[in-house]
Each structure stands twice: as C-alpha cells, then as structure tokens.
Design goal:
- By secondary structure, the chain is mainly α.
- It has 6 helices and 4 strands; from the N terminus they run H-E-E-H-H-H-E-E-H-H.
- Among the domains are: 49 residues, no CATH class; 50 residues.
- The radius of gyration is 55 Å and the shape is elongated.
- Keywords: Coiled coil, Metal-binding, Zinc, Zinc-finger.
- It holds the Pfam family zf-C2H2_jaz.
- This is G patch domain-containing protein 8 isoform X4.
Length: 246
C-alpha cells in the first residue's frame, strides 16, 4: 500500500513538472517569434556599416529608428509581446488581472519626490501641524468684543501708564539734564555732579547765558538810540511845518 501511494505521488509530481516544462517552452517559443517579427519590422531599415577611413559608421534610412515609448496616457499596442501573451491567456483590453479580475486597469503613476525627508515624514509633519493648530490658544483679536473685555483692556493700559510714570519719576531723581546722562544709583549721580566734566559744562552754560544777556542789552540800547533819533527827526519836521504856515 505504501509503495502504491509513493508511486502515485511520483507520477503526479512528474506530470506537474511536465506541464510546467511545456508552458515554459511555449512561452520561450512565443518570445522567439515576437523577437524575429520585431527585428524584421523595425530593424530592416538598418544598413550594414560602411568602412570609411578605418572607422565604422552606422547609417540609417530617412527618419529615426522607431522605438516604442512607455507612457501613462497611451496603452501598449496590440503587437506588444506582453499584450499578446495576456490575450493568449484570456485577458481582454480594459480588464484587470487576477483570478476575479480584481487588479487595477491603469498603470501605477510615478510621483517624483523632491524633498530630502524620509517616506511618510511629510504626512507626519502635516498631522502634527494640524493638531497644533486645533489646540492653539485663542488670540485676543479673535475674542468677542464685550464690556468686560473692554474694561480689562482699559485697566491694562492704565496700569502700564502708571508703571511708566513711576519709572520716569524715579529716573528723574538721578538724571542730569545738562549732561544728558541717566544714573541708577545716588552715589553715581553725586559723583557726576562733583566731577570736573559737569562743572566745566555748567561754566560754559553760564558763560553763554551772560553773553546772550550782554548781546540782548546792547541790542536794546541800539534800538533805544534809533528810537530817540527818529523822535527828534519827527520833532524837527513838525517845527519846520509850523514855521512854514506862519
């Protein structure tokens, strides 16, 4: 019984191997036929190379050698070896591959990747950005304008103004207007007041003020003299007019 079962398995394996060998032989024969037909159709225009100055040059007829170009928009032609093999096994144009014809009918598109990120990194970044956008804090300009919100803004502005005023008053105690210098400590400000630089600027300022006062006084005296001269001239003209009337 065991010998009969083993002999049966050997016969079945031999039959499977024979059928596979026959299919391979038929496929090779079909490929050879297609190759011969292709060479006869597309390469018959190719001439033999000519010997010219010791070099070989291939010459062709007018026009270039026709070569089938692959394209996503244009299906393969009916004389293509792959197309013919599929038709021989029962496939028809427009059908999908597979036992239940569940395969896709259009070619797989080519997507060129220009960035240097890894596969799936861009989708992860977009998901993270979308999640962060959804969980972001609402901006002040996006909040609804209410009386409470306006009062809050007003209190904030008043507080900022009070802080700025207090800081300005504090700095005014240690600010030298003559030298345009601001000090943070009393000792630094006192040293500056007693320094030669500050005293020199103070003397220069006093000198300019005295010079300005002198110029003003001299200008006022000149104006007074001009006014007296004009009055005397008017008085003389009045006297001459009276004498002319008499």
């Amino acid at each position: 019984m065991a010998d009969r079962f083993s002999r049966f398995n050997e016969d079945r394996d031999f039959q499977d191997f024979s059928s596979q060998t026959n299919r391979i032989c038929r496929a090779l024969k079909d490929f050879e036929n297609w190759r011969a037909e292709y060479e006869c159709r597309h390469l018959k225009k190719l001439r033999k190379p000519l010997l010219f100055q010791g070099n070989h040059f291939d010459q062709y007829e007018e026009g270039h050698l026709e070569i089938e170009q692959a394209s996503l928009d244009k299906p393969i032609e009916s004389d293509n070896i792959g197309h013919r093999l599929l038709q021989k096994h029962g496939w028809k144009l427009g059908q999908g591959l597979g036992k239940s014809l569940q395969g896709r009918t259009d070619p797989i598109p080519i997507v060129v990747k220009y960035d240097v990120m890894g596969m799936g990194r861009m989708e992860m970044e977009l998901d993270y950005a979308e999640d962060a956008t959804e969980r972001r804090r609402v901006l002040e300009v996006e909040k609804e304008d209410t009386e409470e919100l306006r009062q809050k803004y007003k209190d904030y502005v008043d507080k900022e103004k009070a802080i700025a005023k207090a800081l300005e008053d504090l700095r005014a105690n240690f600010y030298c207007e003559l030298c345009d210098k601001q000090y943070q400590k009393h000792q630094e400000f006192d040293n500056h007041i007693n320094s030669y630089d500050h005293a020199h600027k103070q003397r220069l300022k006093d000198l300019k003020q005295r010079e300005f006062a002198r110029n003003v006084s001299s200008r006022s005296r000149k104006d007074e003299k001009k006014q007296e001269k004009a009055l005397r001239r008017l008085h003389e003209l009045a006297e001459q007019r009276k004498q002319a009337e008499w």
